[in-house]
Write a structure and sequence with these properties.
Layout (H helix, E strand, L loop, with lengths): L26 E6 L7 H5 L4 E6 L4 E5 L17 E6 L2 H4 L11 H11 L8 H38 L3 H5 L17 H8 L1 H22 L25 H31 L6 H27 L13 H22 L14 H29 L11 H29 L10 H8 L1 H33 L7 H15 L4 H26 L3 H4 L5 H34 L1 H14 L15 H19 L2 E7 L1 H12 L2 H4 L2 E6 L3 H8 L1 H4 L1 H10 L2 E5 L17 H4 L32 H13 L18
Parallel strand pairs: 1-4, 1-5, 5-6, 6-7
Antiparallel strand pairs: 2-3, 3-4
InterPro entries: AB_hydrolase_fold
Organism: Streptomyces gancidicus BKS 13-15
Protein name: Integral membrane protein
């Protein structure tokens, strides 16, 4: 593929190099692909393509024959000039991004921030919603680092290295054993092991900073610093939140380092407070714990103090805070390591570190945050009810609960598998905290519930397929002579309709997770023993069930984590698996990192400015007409770009969406940003908009605008397949296309032609020498 870089005549990428001003008849179709990505050759249906503008990460391509189409606008007789914006490398181009699967809970809680219900005139309630989600994200960071501390400090350095039987089976722990020399002191073992969670914290901080610089630091096109519509996506600063990102990164980094410092210093401080301990060390321990508590309060204050500022570019990075808070936490960690490493004759490691208290407090805090968040979301939904909103506005709290559950499963899986590897079945060490064992024990009943839900979905799909057979017979009247063909079409339609049952599955899963998590927390707090130990004196059936749940849950939680790591490793080597994981990120990382700075980076903060700059510069340079053509997730990017365009540019832009999840998924799950009012405003903002969908498509659907504007946007559902049997136009069996290849339908070219006809060409105003591009 040719990649000769070309820029516009004014250096702004508006038109290919050497292209003079175009006539008013020039038309451009800017294609934006969907999830999973594709190549420019496939999008443009031509093996010879050139890169017009962009880089190796995201770029705009044209056919080689169309490179100078602006100079000869009359040469084309077969429609607009096609141009492809390829952004797949933002999400699935690098194999190392598959390892971001380990940050899945952070991505999920970030989604919960954007799922709030729509509300007008309730700014304080909206701010409270965002605050609660940010605090939930902070608890997930502490949970991740606490899991690393559990593995490195408690299980390895405290329990196994301090037990001769366990340390003897692992020669690499010999120098940490009580007879191993200077490092054998419990406090020094903890200080050395603290390097592992500290290094993990440093890695998360580095990845967050690097990905911000690489993808999310792109300056938007800019516009008036005011709220110009019913959705925040039209605000100038929506896709540029540098200040909040830097503050959250500093706060989460400091919280992680303070968690490590507490794990190192708390054991020594507890020993020093025992009768007969050194008074000086006891005082130092109290002062150190007070300093760490003050640091924790400062972290919470930073997270609570400020949310997103979308009405203007949020460029101030608060450098003193961003640099000072993590540095102060790192200083406290170093002080904790020095304090723990002080010589303490007679101190021996026994039992567990206070992990039960830590995990119990985190679990309780997360449950309370989710419950309060549900109350706030319900209040917002009652203010501005939306019957299409998923779970009646409770989708955000349900997803936040899911994020907490994922964090608990992953942290428990690491601890369980590490304990089994260090000690096996010998029971020479106490093992992980009791609460983690209780949480593992509730996984089998949760999976049983999910299996029941899957059976319900299968039954529902069978019922829908039976009902759809009559609809297929009516649509292909006189042709339905093949019962097998009819069943296949009806089955594809039924499976596509199951997408709309997603909210019910999430509601049941989240509610069950909350109740079972509360039961596990209560059981661990009341008994202080594992489920099998607590049921030892109960009926043999109860005891056997407890043992089975505990053993099966432990293996399932460990297996899930191992599969997650294995999948990520396979994706590093396998391009097809890497693309599958990239599809997950295409959906999950569209939104900016507003609740968690360590979530995978937001590709839209690069893609949306790319599209807006390309559209604005091309229309300004040529004065031509432009059809913004988006498929699947590309239609969401196209809508976001259209909202960011100045009104003068929107007057030359038509929107064509197909296989679009704008209303079916985004409108239901993100009602504050893609609800009926927002989509209706988008329809009014652009000159014309047409949406194509199929009944066999599991992702795309109608826009369903309120009032009389709906039919003007949604075309009646396209036929799929195009022909039931063999016809002169389709001598071979026509495939069921579902979500793919909308351009194969003649309706696509017809609707594109109509959109271009509705756009009135305008000659651009002459540009003065030295005049800058579109306003920033």
């Amino acid at each position: 593929m040719e990649k000769a870089q070309q820029t516009g005549p004014d250096g702004d990428g508006g038109a290919p190099a050497g292209a003079g001003p175009a006539g008013p008849g020039t038309a451009l179709e800017l294609l934006v692909h969907g999830v999973g990505g594709t190549s420019p050759e496939q999008m443009l249906d031509d093996p010879r393509t050139v890169r017009v503008t962009g880089d190796d990460v995201a770029a705009v391509f044209r056919r080689a024959d169309d490179a100078d189409a602006e100079r000869n606008p009359g040469a084309r007789r077969d429609g607009p000039v096609p141009e492809a914006y390829v952004w797949c490398n933002l999400t699935s181009g690098n194999g190392t991004r598959a390892l971001w699967l380990l940050l899945l809970p952070f991505m999920v809680v970030n989604l919960a921030h954007w799922m709030r219900p729509s509300a007008h005139g309730r700014r304080r309630t909206v701010r409270l919603y965002g605050l609660l989600v940010r605090l939930t994200g902070l608890s997930l960071t502490v949970l991740l680092v606490a899991a690393a501390c559990e593995v490195a400090l408690d299980l390895t350095a405290w329990q196994c290295a301090g037990t001769p039987a366990c340390a003897g089976r692992h020669s690499w722990l010999g120098f940490l054993s009580p007879d191993g020399g200077w490092w054998g002191a419990p406090g020094r073992r903890l200080a050395l092991a603290a390097l592992v969670p500290a290094a993990l914290t440093g890695l998360l901080w580095f990845l967050s900073l690097r990905t911000w610089s690489a993808y999310e630091s792109q300056q938007p096109l800019g516009g008036p610093e005011e709220d110009t519509g019913p959705t925040a996506l039209s605000r100038p600063g929506f896709w540029y939140g540098r200040r909040l990102g830097a503050r959250l990164r500093a706060a989460h980094t400091a919280a992680a380092l303070l968690t490590v410092a507490a794990a190192v210093g708390s054991a020594a401080a507890r020993y020093d407070r025992e009768p007969g301990g050194p008074a000086v060390l006891a005082v130092l321990g109290v002062l150190l714990e007070a300093a760490m508590a003050a640091g924790a309060c400062a972290v919470v204050w930073v997270v609570c103090r400020r949310g997103r500022s979308e009405r203007r570019l949020d460029g101030d990075a608060d450098r003193r805070l961003v640099r000072g808070l993590p540095l102060a936490a790192l200083t406290l960690l170093a002080a904790s390591a020095l304090y723990a490493g002080w010589e303490r004759p007679g101190w021996e490691s026994a039992g567990r570190l206070p992990g039960n208290v830590t995990y119990g407090a985190l679990t309780l805090a997360q449950g309370l945050l989710v419950i309060v968040l549900a109350g706030v979301a319900h209040a917002l939904h009652r203010t501005d009810p939306d019957r299409r909103a998923a779970l009646r506005g409770l989708a955000g709290p349900a997803v936040a609960m899911l994020a907490c559950a994922l964090g608990g499963v992953m942290s428990g899986g690491v601890s369980q598998r590490m304990s089994d590897w260090l000690d096996g079945t010998r029971a020479s060490i106490p093992g992980p905290p009791v609460l983690l064992t209780w949480q593992a024990s509730v996984i089998p009943p949760l999976l049983l519930l999910l299996l029941i839900m899957c059976c319900w979905l299968a039954r529902r799909a069978w019922q829908l397929a039976r009902a759809e057979r009559a609809a297929v017979a009516e649509e292909y009247r006189g042709e339905t002579g093949d019962p097998g063909r009819t069943r296949r079409i009806a089955s594809v339609r039924a499976m596509a309709a199951l997408t709309d049952r997603g909210p019910r599955i999430l509601a049941v899963t989240s509610a069950a997770t909350l109740l079972l998590g509360a039961a596990a927390l209560a059981g661990a707090a009341a008994t202080g023993r594992t489920p099998s130990q607590a049921a030892r004196d109960a009926h043999p059936v109860v005891h056997g069930a407890a043992q089975t749940a505990q053993a099966l849950g432990s293996w399932l939680i460990g297996l899930g984590f191992v599969l997650l790591v294995t999948w990520g490793r396979r994706a590093y080597k396998d391009a097809s698996a890497r693309r599958t994981i990239g599809i997950l990120w295409d959906v999950g990382t569209f939104w900016p990192r507003a609740a968690h700075p360590f979530a995978p980076p937001c590709y839209a903060e690069r893609a949306v400015p790319d599209l807006t700059w390309r559209i604005a510069t091309w229309t300004r340079t040529t004065g031509g007409r432009l059809v913004l053509s988006g498929h699947s997730q590309g239609s969401v990017l196209a809508a976001a770009a259209a909202w960011q365009l100045p009104p003068s540019v929107r007057a030359r832009v038509a929107l064509l969406t197909y296989g679009s999840p704008l209303e079916r998924l985004y409108g239901r799950w993100f009602p504050a940003h893609f609800g009926p009012d927002a989509l209706d405003a988008l329809h009014r903002d652009v000159v014309c908009w047409r949406n194509l969908y199929r009944r066999t498509d599991p992702i795309g659907g109608p826009v369903r605008l309120p009032g009389d504007t709906g039919p003007d946007v949604d075309r009646p559902p396209l036929k799929d397949p195009l022909a039931y049997g063999r016809t002169p136009d389709h001598p071979l069996p026509a495939p069921i296309l579902a979500h793919s290849d909308y351009q194969a339908d003649p309706a696509f070219a017809e609707e594109r032609r109509r959109l271009l006809a509705r756009l009135r060409p305008e000659v651009p105003a002459p540009r003065r020498t030295g005049e800058p591009g579109p306003a920033a």
